Amino acid sequence: MSRSVSFNFGPQPGTDGTTFRFWAPGARRVDLLLEPKKGPAWRQPFTAAGDGWFETLVRGVGAGDRYRFRIDDELDVPDPASRFQPEGVTGPGEILDPHSFQWRDLRWQGRPWHEAVLYELHVGAFTREGTYRAAIERLDDLARIGITAIELLPLNTFPGRRGWGYDGVLLYAPQPNYGRPDELKHFVQAAHERGLMVLIDVVYNHFGPEGNYLHRYAEDFFTSAHHTPWGSAINFTHPVVRQFFIQNALYWLNEYRFDGLRVDAVHAMFDEGDTHFIDELVDSVQRGPGSERHVHVVLENHHNEARRLGRKDRSMVAQWNDDFHHPMHILLSGEHDGYYRNYADRPIEHLGRVLAEGFAYQGEVYQTEGHARGERSASLPPTAFVNFIQNHDQIGNRAFGERLTQLAPPEKLRAGVAVLLLAPQIPMLFMGEEYGAVQPFLYFCDYHGDLAKAISEGRRNEFASFGAFADEHRREHIPDPNAEQTYLASQLDGDDRAEARHREWLAYTQELLAVRAEKVVPLIPEIVPGAARYKTSGPVLAVWWPLSRGRALVMQANFGNDPAPALGLQQDLGLQPDLGPPQEKIKNTIPPPVHGRGQGVGLPVSRALDLWYSTAGASARHEELHPWEVRLSLGAS
Questions:
Q1: Which of 128, 225, 304, 344 registers the highest number of CB atoms within 10 A of its CB?
Q2: Model-level pTM?
Q3: What is the rounded CA–CA span in Å between residue 165 and residue 153?
Q4: Hey, what's the torsion of the CAs at 236, 95, 124, 110, to 10 degrees?
């Protein structure tokens, strides 16, 4: 069975031929340049249809034929809504038959969001082959350890053969060197057959610098009223521009059966209209494919706008939570430069507020920016937040792309992973993290000429303000983003998983995810929004998530190098008012132990806490926490 819907943008094959529509308000004339599979190339003029639109129907042209547009007899450009660019961003587009792929996952409805364990994956660096087909071979491994959802870095066509995908220019066309579009559909289908959701990262805040000709014929795509790190902002107030992006989102969800979107840098989308673009996008998704199956949306939004998050019918709008990553990174690595300064004064309390309420910054002044950041988030469910201790940004934006395996001692990293995977928020692992990969993930791209030189020099100069790179000669050692070796060094080597140290990490990840699936996931829908509390005592953090049926999910963690008293959590402590950060310390009231055996690891049980899991295993003691120990318990009613 095929799944396809009609769109205003891009070629539309039909029984009478193929219809082409092109929005070019800055062009006087547009011609279609055809490169058919058989026969000579030829051109056909478009007909102006008003409001900047050009249209033409070409009989006898269909799947496999290639084409470009010629603007005013001056410039040949690709279709900005081309469905496939086999020769890259400057080559011709290829017409695809949207009905040719036969989907087998007819009963797939996605998964409820509270079951999600995300795995961020770059197709080109996930395997040595760097293709969809090679990635399929690894899906069984991911499903086996407890991953339930894959989040793909952007697939839109970008310049060259190497790149993160965030400088794409042709948003409807999947990157050609990963495989053909049908191979991407095979990947999605194979994931569904293993119970895995697949989300795609989409970039709607800018276009890349190479292969983008919109300024020549559709200047209305941009506005000078706002600026972004990439130049003029996207003009979301224009109805055609707005629909270009909304239909792109629906295209990926319908044509490729993705289970959701991760929307890049929402804070760089400016819209003063009555309905912000991102809200209309979410509504369109929920009225469309989200009305038939679980379709989720994850935002990246530095502004911490809690009002955009929460349950939408059957699905969820969540946010990548940097406020979890930053204090956790300080605790694990000891680093506190740059934006980490905003959390370095009391990282444990910031982490506690995040686990209990969602954001660490809910309107407080963000030191490095000098103004208030965030909105109140305590009333949201924990599933509105995606937590991580590593992702492509936090690794790749480092000069040498080091992972936490290179920055944090193993005992600390084990504790960080336990908090990540056992807390009721949605956890996300970055590819290779499940087995403690040591390969760097560097920033890489594939530009040439002056642009390549500018990017390489800019990459090195951006670290000049860091003490470690104040010396120009030291900066010369930062890998060149355009060098092929930089990309190759970032690829995972699947054979590493067979080494003893990696097998141990993999077993640990699988153990934690098994506890999450058995103990935590069934309780997440019962967590009462707005009722969670936390408290700290020195290096110890305890978080209490009340449940609708009268008990509570409890996590305790010791982020110190010495044993520390466990914190007592009695039900009445959850009734104190929200005091904001830092939360008032509460007198330690450890309940006395009673005889008995705990569930799972055979540990003593108190009247208040029924211990489910401890990273200390059988050596765990009721009265105190070992250094860097993390515990998960069920609180008494």
A1: 304
A2: 0.92
A3: 7
A4: 70
